[in-house]
Design a protein that fits this description.
This protein is mostly beta strands. The chain is built from 1 helix and 2 strands; from the N terminus they run ββα.
Length: 51
């Protein structure tokens, strides 16, 4: 089962986004090791916030 790397909840529907660990607006990279799986709401609610 996939788990959201932002909130740690399971992704029951199997739908996920790729989240930049460091947001692109804050200088984040497109490299695969700089991305993580996240729910849409967790990813798009972050904007350029680091956490």
């Amino acid at each position: 089962m996939l788990v959201c790397q932002v909130c740690s909840a399971p992704m029951l529907d199997g739908v996920f986004t790729l989240d930049h660990i460091v947001p692109k607006g804050a200088g984040g990279s497109e490299r695969i090791h700089k991305l993580r799986l996240a729910h849409y709401r967790c990813n798009h609610g972050r904007h350029n916030i680091l956490y």
